[in-house]
């Protein structure tokens, strides 16, 4: 009886089909851009170009994964691009100069693994600052991370007076000769950055879907007050997501400095926009409580392929910025439409089962 009532609901089947298409919109968009650029851009599907695009996508995907957790909790992290620049400069400084101990006059040089560890620590530290501002001082996430965006960018500029740290090829003597391998090396023909993305993506997806912490992240984003009343440590959850976002940004800073064998303080400018776009396009709700890591990675592929495809077609960088902005707006509008449609279907089902 209830099934018959639901089937008889006005537009019930059409609404369900529309909702299914909306949920699969990221995959549909990915297929669409691949098909379009395979015809519009020469050599788009060549092996060399696919590898290059995958490396570009990986950089955006790292940031988008961290951003997804932040947005699920109902927050935002505008500082990730500046963290990329700051961490790249930290890595470059350590490779070239080491750390001079003023009280002894000696300079300590670190090997590649130690530099990776210290650089990731800087990214996490900025995440800690973001988390403390938001959870302890009750600063709105937008304002808190906007402030750290400027602070981190300023620190990156101060580290070299705005200059570039060049020739980061490292030294055999100090154990840093392997530094370029992070961004330019490959294993079994696949770039190292892609392997790192696979590991991070699988780990993040498992955390979100299979662990108590993952469920707590969704609960905080769905209803923070209810989550607190149920015993969830909301402050700890929020601290974690901002620290993880800073960690992901630090990975990108390391990879870019290694790829270019140089670090520049302006690296990472506007990267936060691509990360937000990938997360939202992948189905993460800006209102919090909903999102999947898999969808975010697919969204990163859409944004990355769109950017590289437009470059191959010779489209002006100014128009590329316009198109990315339109993609973000469209993604948010579609997400809002999906939420309204889900609410309507839920009400129809309640009415049908109530008959």
Fold and architecture overview:
Pfam families: BPD_transp_2. Helix content is 72%, strand content 3%. Residues 1-10 have low confidence and may be disordered. The protein has 15 helices and four strands. With 355 residues, the chain is an all-alpha fold.
| Portion in beta strands | under 5%
Highest CATH level, the class: Mainly Alpha
Largest sheet: 2 strands, antiparallel
CATH architecture: Orthogonal Bundle
Shape: globular
> From the helix content, strand content and strand pairing, which structural class follows?
mainly alpha
Question: How many β-strands, per DSSP?
Answer: 4
Estimate percent helicity: over 70%
Q: Count every helix, treating DSSP H or I runs of 4 or more residues as helices.
A: 15
The SSE order reads: HHHHHEEHHHEEHHHHHHH
Gyration radius (Cα, Å) is 22 Å
Number of domains: 1
Uncertain parts: 1-10
Distance between termini? 8 Å
Reported by name, the CATH topology is: ABC transporter involved in vitamin B12 uptake, BtuC
Mean pLDDT: 88
Output the strand order for the largest sheet: 1-2
What is the topology?
Blueprint: H1 2-8, H2 12-23, H3 25-40, H4 47-72, H5 80-97, E1 99-101, E2 106-108, H6 112-135, H7 141-158, H8 181-184, E3 186-187, E4 190-191, H9 192-210, H10 212-222, H11 224-229, H12 234-260, H13 271-281, H14 293-312, H15 317-354
Antiparallel strand pairs: 1-2, 3-4
Helix pairs in contact: 1-15, 2-15, 3-14, 4-9, 4-12, 4-13, 4-14, 5-6, 5-7, 5-12, 6-7, 6-12, 9-10, 10-12, 13-14, 13-15
Protein name: Sugar ABC transporter permease
GO molecular function, one term: transmembrane transporter activity
Subcellular location: Cell membrane
């Amino acid at each position: 009886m209830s099934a018959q009532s639901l089937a008889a609901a006005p537009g019930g089947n059409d609404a369900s089909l529309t909702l299914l298409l909306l949920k699969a919109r990221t995959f549909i968009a990915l297929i669409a851009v691949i098909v379009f650029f395979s015809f519009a851009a020469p050599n788009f599907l060549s092996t060399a170009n696919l590898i290059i695009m995958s490396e570009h996508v990986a950089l955006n995907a790292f940031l988008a994964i961290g951003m997804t957790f932040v947005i699920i909790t109902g927050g935002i992290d505008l500082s990730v691009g500046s963290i990329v620049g700051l961490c790249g400069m930290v890595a470059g400084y350590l490779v070239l100069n080491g750390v001079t101990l003023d009280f002894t006059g000696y300079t300590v040089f670190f090997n590649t693994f130690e530099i990776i560890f210290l650089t990731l620590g800087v990214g996490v530290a900025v995440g800690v600052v973001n988390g403390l501002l938001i959870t302890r001082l009750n600063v709105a996430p937008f304002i808190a991370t906007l402030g750290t965006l400027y602070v981190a960018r300023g620190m990156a500029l101060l580290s070299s007076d705005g200059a570039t740290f060049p020739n980061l090829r490292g030294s055999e003597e100090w154990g840093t000769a392997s530094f370029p391998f992070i961004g330019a090396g490959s294993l079994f023909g696949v770039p190292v950055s892609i392997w790192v993305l696979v590991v991070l993506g699988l780990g993040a997806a498992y955390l979100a879907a299979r662990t108590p912490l993952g469920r707590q992240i969704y609960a905080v984003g769905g209803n923070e007050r209810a989550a607190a009343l149920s015993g969830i440590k909301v402050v700890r959850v929020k601290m974690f997501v901002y620290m993880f976002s800073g960690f992901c940004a630090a990975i990108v800073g390391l990879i870019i400095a290694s790829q270019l064998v140089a670090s520049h303080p302006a690296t990472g400018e506007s990267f936060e926009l691509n990360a937000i776009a990938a997360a939202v396009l992948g189905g993460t709700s800006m209102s919090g409580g909903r999102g999947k890591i898999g969808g975010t990675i697919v969204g990163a592929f859409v944004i990355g392929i769109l950017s590289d495809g437009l470059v191959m077609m010779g489209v002006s960088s100014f128009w590329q910025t316009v198109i990315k902005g339109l993609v973000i707006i469209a993604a948010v509008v579609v997400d809002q439409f999906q939420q309204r449609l889900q609410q309507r279907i839920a009400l129809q089902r309640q009415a049908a089962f109530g008959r």
